[in-house]
Amino acid sequence: MIPDSSPTPKVALIGGGSIGCGWAALCAANGWETVLLDADERSADRALAESARRARILVGLGRADAGLVDQGIDRMQLGRSLLQACGSADWIIESLPEELPLKQRMFENIGQVARADAVITSSSSALPITDIAARCREPGRCLVAHPLNPPELIPLIEVVPGKFTSPQATESVLVWLRALGRIPITLKKEVPGNVVGRIAGAVWRECIDLVLTGVVDVDDLDRAVSLGPGLGWAAAGPHLTYHLGAGEGGVKLFLEQLLQAFESWWGSLAQWTKLEPEQVRALTAQIEKAYGEKIGALGEARDRRLAAILRALEESRRA
Ligand SMILES: NC(=O)c1ccc[n+]([C@@H]2O[C@H](COP(=O)([O-])OP(=O)(O)OC[C@H]3O[C@@H](n4cnc5c(N)ncnc54)[C@H](O)[C@@H]3O)[C@@H](O)[C@H]2O)c1
């Protein structure tokens, strides 16, 4: 039985890679108490430092309050064992590598040491919680809460209950996510890749195809997405965009006017499901040629743009 969710739960973070550190930074930025457990002491020390660094960056980006971040970093500790990390946690967030047997074993072990009323979420991008928690004691407390990278900046979270997830567990996670300033969406059934992965996968396949077949260079393709549909979709999703696409006639008129054109494009879109090694090499070479190797600096610039877009969207919602 999951009790009424506390607005500031004690959080255990299992796995301190890119996503675990993002969750840790987000919780710290809200002043929450966290315990972080990684595979060994060295990687855990590194993850703790990385989480604190990413939480502090949020202050510079105008996405967090310095005092709360200091409080959250003070309240962040390393887990010494699964029992010590999870035993008193309200919310346990698993962010291990995307391998089903590894996650299944972890959920089974967490199930042994967590309180019966704790909620356990997986950050998995593609694995269903119905499989991940198959051997977990009391699986009604398990669900997927899938963030986008970087989790401390992008507010959308996909919440995916499994066959056995209790409505109370889902509700607790929704309350906590909103308290963290996230914008959750709830999927009504499990599908491979969830909603976001399927959309990203479909668009990216066509983008790769357009580059590899020589229609457009990598940097122009990226501009076409970011300043074309990407810019529009940040303001209004595809359905609202097309509802507004034919003036007062709404989506009904839009479909009358343009469905045929879309149908002819759908017929010629890329359909492949596998990239051959030489295509992977060609794609990698073209992306590296377009952007070079300064990954850190490119990431920082991307995060500044993300923060600016979020600020603008929030201001326009308030206006
Ligand atoms: N990277 C992304 O863009 C992204 C986005 C959203 C969701 N996800 C999902 O989040 C999860 C984590 O992804 P990631 O990119 O952070 O992976 P990662 O490989 O960067 O990190 C995994 C961490 O788990 C640790 N670990 C491995 N076994 C462990 C164990 N038994 N106990 C404790 N720690 C252990 C590793 O040391 C590592 O620090 C995956 O399920 C992935 O699908 C990834």
Structure description:
It is a single chain. The protein is 55% helix and 11% strand. Helix 1 packs across helix 3, helix 2 runs antiparallel to helix 3 and helix 9 runs parallel beside helix 10 (229-235). It has helices spanning 18-29, 41-60, 66-74, 82-86, 100-113, 129-132, 167-179, 194-212, 218-227, 229-235, 238-243, 250-268, 277-291, 295-318; strands at residues 11-14, 34-37, 76-78, 91-94, 119-122, 142-147, 156-161, 183-186. The chain has an eight-stranded mixed sheet with strand order 3-2-1-4-5-6-7-8, sandwiched between helices. The chain is α/β, with parallel strands linked by helices. It has two domains: 11-192, Rossmann fold; 197-318, N-(1-d-carboxylethyl)-l-norvaline Dehydrogenase, domain 2 (Orthogonal Bundle). It is built from 14 helices and eight strands. Bound molecules: nicotinamide-adenine-dinucleotide. Nicotinamide-adenine-dinucleotide binds at residues 14-20, 37-39, 43, 95-98, 123-125, 146-147, 149.
